# Entry
Amino acid sequence: MRRLKDVDRIFLLLVLVMIEFAAAAIYIPIQQVHVAAGIERASRFELAFVAQEAKVDLASFNRDIARYLGERTADRANSVRADYAALAERGKDFRHGDFGAFVADAATPQMAADFFDRTIASLEPLIPNIEDDANAAKAAALGEKLEPGVQSLAAQALAANGEIAARRQEQLRDQQFETVALNIGLLLTSCGLIAMLGRQNRFVRLMHEKQIEATKKYEFLANHDGLTGLPNRFHFRQMLAQALAKLGEPGREVALFSLDLDRFKTINDTLGHAAGDALLVCVAERLAAMTKEESGVFAARLGGDEFLMIVEGEAIGKRVIDITEATLHALSQPYLLEGRSIVVRASVGIAIAPRDGWNADEIVRRSDVALNRAKIGGRAVARLFDEEMDRENRERLALEIDLTEAIERDEFEPHYQPIVEFSTGEIIGVEALARWRHGRLGLASPGVFMAVAEETGLIAAIGRRMLDLACRDAFSMPEHIHVAVNLSPVQFLRGDIVETVERALARSGLAPSRLELEIAEGVMLADESKTFEVIGRLRALGVRIALDDFGTGYASLSHLRRYGFDKLKIDPCFIREIDRAPQGFEIVQSIVALGRALGMTIVAEGVETAEQSRMAWLAGCGYGQGFLYGRPMSAAELGNHCGWDDRRPTREIA
# Structure
C-alpha cells in the first residue's frame, strides 16, 4: 500500500513535471514572440522616419526650384512638379497612422502640420504654371518658409520616438525578468531546458544590441548630412547656439565661415550629379581634416555646395586669418573626378561675434552678406563682414525689387548711339542701349542695374522688351540705317532667343537685314556647341551677328574662324590708348588685319576725340562709335539729331 502511494506520488510528480514541460513548451514560444515584438517596436522610429522623409522631399524641392530659377528648362520644371507631388503625398502621411496620432496629440506638431498643409495648398496653384517667373519665385519662397517648420516637426518626432522607445524598453525589461524567472524554474526541473533558455537569452541580447545600434544610427542620421557625414543644418544650429552661449566669458569670440564652391553648377552640368556628389564628399573630408587639427573648429553642410565652419576661442583674430588661408588653400587643391583633375575654388564670408552681433540668425545672415560680397568681388576670396556690406546688400535687394516692378510698369526704353562710316562721315546705323526711367534716380544707365539684372535673370525680360522697341523704332528710320541690339549671355543661352528675335521682326515689320545682334566674348565659353547652333539659326533668319567688346581675352582665333561673325567691334580700352600708349596704334592695326582676314567689318568703339577718330581710320577701321558722334539719345532726339524728316510711321507694340 505504501509502495503504491510512493508510486502514485512519483506518477503525480512525473505528471506535474510533464505538465510543467508542456506549459513551458507552450509559454516559451509565446514569450519569445512578445520579447521579439517588444524589441521590434522599440527599434522602430516611424515618426522620425516620416519626418525625415519630409525633410528629404522638401530639400529636393528647394534644390530643384533653385536650379530651375538658375536655368529654366522643361526638365527642371518637371522635377519641381515631381518634388511637389512627393511633398503633397508626405502631407497626407502627417494625418494618418501613428504620425497622425502624434500630430493630433500635441499643439506644436498640430500647428507645424497645419502650416505644412496651408503652404502645400498655396503651392498647388503655382506648380502647374511654374514656368511663370512670379510663380517660380513664390514657390521658392514658400519652399524656404517650410524648412523651419519641417525641421521643428522632425526634431519633435525624434524626441517623441525617444520617449516611446524608453517606454518600450521598460516593458522589454519586465518581459526579460519574467523570462529569467521562468528559466530559473525550468533550471530546477531539467538541465535540458537550461540550454534552450540560454539560447533564448542570447537571442534577446542580440536583438537588444541591434535595437541600441538602430537607435544610434537614427540619432546620427537626424543630426548629420547623409552624403558627407558632416553635421547638418539642425545640428549646426545647436553647435552655434552652444558657442554663442559662451560669449559672456572674457575675451571669448565666435567666427562663422560661410563657404560656397565656385563653378559647382558647371561641374554638375558638365560631369553629372555623381561627380558633383563626389566633389562635395571630397570638400567635406578636407574640412573635417582641418577641424581635427584645430581645436574649437567645427564644420557643417547646409545643403547643396553650402558649407559652414565655426571657430571659437579667445581673441581669435589671428586664428581666423590663418584658418581662412588654410581653408582657401586646402579647397583649391585639384580634385580627381571622373578621371579628370579638376580645380574648384571657394568663396568665403566671415562674421565674428560679438562684434557683428550676438544673435545666431544675425551672425548667419551677416556671414552670408560677406559671402555674397566675396562672389561679387571676383570669387575664390574671403571677405570679412562690415556695415558697409550690409548697407550695399540692402540697396541691392531694394534694386532687385525696383527692377521687378519696373519691368511690370514698362519703365525701360532704348536710347540710340550713332555709328558713323569713317570714309564719308555719314551715320549708317545705331546701337540700342537700355535706359531705365526711374522715378527717383531719373534716367538710369545700364551701369546702375545691369549687374543685378544679369544675376537675377531679369535681364531676359528687359532684353526682350528692348529688342521689340528697337525693331519698332528702326522701322521708322531711313531704310539704309541698321540697328544693333545687345544680347546678354543669359538671354542668348535661353532656349527661346531665336523665336524672340523672329517675333520682334514680325511684329515691327523690320527687314531682318537691318537688325544686328551683338554678343559678348564670354558667351562662347558657356556652351560652344549651343552657341554655334543658336548663331546658325539666327543667321538663317537673315540678321547679322557682331562680336562686341573684342579684346577682353576670351575669344581665340579658333572662335573667330568657327563662328564667322559679320562684324567685330574693338573694345573701347584699345581706342582710348590708340594715340597715347606705346604700341596702341599697332595693336588696333593687328586687330583690324585679323578681322579683315576673316571677312569681318570693323567698328572702333568708344571714340571720344577727333584724334582717336583719325587714328582709328588710319589703322583700318571702317566705322566708329562714341561720344564724338553723339551720346545715346531717344528715338525722337535721334531723328532731330540726324535730320530724318521722312520717317515712316511705326507699328504699335504692346
